[in-house]
Amino acid sequence: MSRVRWSFLGLDLRALLFLCLVIPSGIVGIYLHGQKITYFLRPLWESPPKPFITLTHYYHENVSMETLCKLHGWGIRDFPRRVYDAILFSNEVDMLKIRWKEMYPYISQFVLLEANSTFTALPKPLNFAFNRDKFKFVEPRLTYGTIGGRFRRGENPFIEEAYQRLALDQLLRIAGIEDDDLLVMSDVDEIPSRHTIDLLRWCDDIPAVLHLQLKNYLYSFEFLYDLRSWRASIHRYQRGKTRYAHYRQTDYLLADSGWHCSFCFRYISDFIFKMKAYSHTDRVRFSHYLSPKRIQELICKGADLYDMIPEEYTFRDIIGKMGPIPHSHSAVHLPSFLLENAGEYKYLLPGNCIRESG
């Protein structure tokens, strides 16, 4: 009987140990790493999107435009289309200047809208208005507008984002856009190359909507993440049909069309602002994510600010992209204005990861 009694006692102790240690540890583990587990298992519950039809992109500075259009299977126009570049602006002053200097020769009208609130209903200053003197070179071709935020705390940030993008449609009409003008739809940090814009404004019979494949960088042009940024797009405008959006709108993708430099800020304070302000604010799961020291360390490593598993659809791609992004020493084929002013923008070039506090 004593053996049986000790057997049950041992069973009770093991059960008690399980209840007191293993289960709480499991709960804490899920709380800390549940998002990672979900993203890692994504291939089990979500299929990859339909692949794009990628169009080969031909370019060389010594090849005529007529030849380039012909290589793409397009004709050439007697005169180029007008091109409108339309963006929502938050606080990316340096990236905006690099963008507009790159695109300036071929843009007919620059259209910029900014709000006094973030997508997450935080108040913000009108940063473009405050820095407008830095953009005198576009002033004759600039249509600038502001919009009041709705400041609805707790609302899905994508609703506010959609509201502001809808307002940009109205500003485009004020700017005088007409049918068959080209409209560039992209975020400030998604920069089409100058020659891509020139090609599409001169060539005839281009697709009505075309996504642009951009080289995908993180923090600076030192960390090339992949070649799969696709949300930037260019449209042959149709009144009553074309709507400003930042999601997939066609199956066609023009290869190697520019650069996407995400979280490419000069100041640590701008990193913190964006982490709290943009639509994916739910990724800031813990307050220490906003620590300036932590952010600086991750920038120099090329590691993820949110400690997330890569957002991919196959285990091969997820595992292949885990960990920091490898450092690159190449500064070839970057926006010309950036290289011409390397001293001012050295934080965007390889080997210069330290940021100012702001």
Automatic annotation (TrEMBL):
The keyword Chloroplast does not apply. It is an enzyme of class 2 (transferase). The chain crosses the membrane at residues 15-32. The keyword Transferase applies. Pfam families: Glyco_transf_17 (PF04724). GO terms for molecular function: beta-1,4-mannosylglycoprotein 4-beta-N-acetylglucosaminyltransferase activity. PANTHER family: BETA-1,4-MANNOSYL-GLYCOPROTEIN 4-BETA-N-ACETYLGLUCOSAMINYLTRANSFERASE, BETA-1,4-MANNOSYL-GLYCOPROTEIN BETA-1,4-N-ACETYLGLUCOSAMINYL-TRANSFERASE. Its EC number is 2.4.1.144. InterPro entries: Glyco_trans_17 (IPR006813). The lineage of its organism: Eukaryota, Viridiplantae, Streptophyta, Embryophyta, Tracheophyta. Keywords: Glycosyltransferase, Membrane, Transferase, Transmembrane, Transmembrane helix. This is Beta-1,4-mannosyl-glycoprotein 4-beta-N-acetylglucosaminyltransferase. It comes from Salvia divinorum.
